[in-house]
Amino acid sequence: MGLFRQSSTLPGANEALPGRPEPIETAQTHFVNGHFLAGPYPEGSKQVLFGMGCFWGAERKFWSLPGVYVTAVGYAGGVTPNPTYEEVCTGLTGHTEVVQVVYEKGVDLASLLRVFWENHDPTQGMRQGNDIGTQYRSAVYVTGEAELALVEATRRTFGEALRLAGYPPITTEVAERPPFYFAEAYHQQYLAKNPAGYCGLGGTGVSCAIGTGVAA
Known about the structure:
Blueprint: E1 46-52, H1 55-62, E2 68-76, H2 85-89, E3 96-103, H3 109-118, E4 127-128, E5 131-132, E6 138-142, H4 145-164, E7 173-176, E8 180-182, H5 190-193
Parallel strand pairs: 6-7
Antiparallel strand pairs: 1-3, 1-6, 2-3, 2-8, 4-5
Helix pairs in contact: 3-4
C-alpha cells in the first residue's frame, strides 16, 4: 500500500480536507461470504471498529471467526466526511484505517478484543511496522460505557503482559464509535481476492488470557 505522507500528527479541523457529502462507491456484498456489507444485519448483532495498521490484513483476521457475520474495511476517527483512500493517505483527514466487524448475538466482545490485541503491536503510536503515518495508528471504537469499560480492562491486562515482556506502554486510541466510512470496492476483502498481496500485519508474540468464548 503506497504512502503519500508519513505524518505523525493529526490535522486540526481548519487544515483537514473537506471531503464530500455523499459516500464514495464501494462493493455491495462480502467477497467471501456474500453478506451485504452495509446491512441489513441480523437482529441483535453488534458492531466494533478495529484499527491495526494496514486494514487488508486486519480484516482477514476477523472474517472467518465464529459468530462474525460480516466485515468491511474503511476509515474512522478523523474529520473529513466520506474520504477517499488517496485523501486518507495524505494524512489530512485524521482517519485511521479500520475494519468494521459485525458480530452476532451471543458472541463475547472480549474474544474479538483478544484477536485485536494479539495480532498487532499496539505500542507503536502513529505507525504499524513499516507502515508509518496517522492512518496506521492502533484504535478501538465501541458503543456505550459498558463496552468502553471492557476495552479499558483488556487494555490494562494486555498492557501488563506487554510490560513484563519488555514493551513500552500501549498507545491504542479507545473511544466511542465515530462515523465509519466504507473504503473503495477494491479494498474490501483484498487478501481474499489477492492471496499473495501485502499484509503488513504482525504482532508482539505476547498472548494473554483476557477472556474468550461465547457469552451465555
